[in-house]
Specification:
Layout: H1 2-17, H2 21-34, H3 39-51, H4 55-67
Helix pairs in contact: 1-2, 1-3, 2-3, 3-4
């Protein structure tokens, strides 16, 4: 549910700030398991993947994020 997704994202951001990229990635993925369209999880997972030098994988999450954008 959305509350679990938000919790995973919050913990993921903390891990990202500490530069614990593997933990951050796992937490953002868990958030997306709860809510596949969670914008913050998609964005932060993309950022994490960029920091892990995986730009092609990151692009996939940024594209998914664009699918949910409201203009």
């Amino acid at each position: 549910d959305i509350y679990n997704a938000n919790g995973h994202v919050n913990l993921g951001v903390c891990a990202l700030v500490r530069n614990d990229l593997s933990k951050a990635r796992k937490l953002f993925e868990q958030a997306l398991d709860c809510d596949p369209s969670h914008a913050e999880a998609l964005y932060n997972l993309g950022i994490t993947l960029l920091k892990q030098n995986q730009p092609e994988d990151a692009l996939g999450f940024f594209r998914r994020l664009g699918e949910f954008a409201i203009w």
